[in-house]
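Standup notes, structure subgroup. Blocker cleared on the zinc ion input:
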Amino acid sequence: MATEALKLTAQIVISHASMSELTPKELVDEIKVIYNVLTALESSEALLEAAEGGAEPGPEAEVLKKPSIPLDEIVKEKYVVCLECGKKMRTLKAHLRKAHHLAPAEYFRRYSLDPKKYPLVCKEYSEQRRKLAKEKGLGERGFRRKKASA
Ligand SMILES: [Zn+2]
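Run returned:
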């Protein structure tokens, strides 16, 4: 698969050349070096694959977990779904810590989740909290106003 290595070489050299000024000679040298490295890597990878007997996923496939539940299913009106075990709860923060020893940040990173899009509390819960905070704010302001006019 020399063409694949050539394509990669071109990509690498192009991105390098766009960052630093290279003379034509340097460019050619760089292409040679990168191409050699890539083809060497490729052939040793091919050897490894042959030795292992096929296309088994490497250990690096484990680093980022793929959620088994569709992401638009995990934050609902009455519950949020734990992607680790599939449990449904009103809030996940304490559960993640107790059941999976995960900090919220680790959880978001593990599943590449956007915390703003996929909060750890159900919609109803965050809505209630928002309302409560609003009412409290309004109440306090009203109280102060009354007192001031008295
Ligand atoms: Zn869980």
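Discussed briefly. The pocket of zinc ion is lined by residues 82, 84-85, 87, 95, 99-100 (CB under 6 Å).
Next: hand off to the docking folks.
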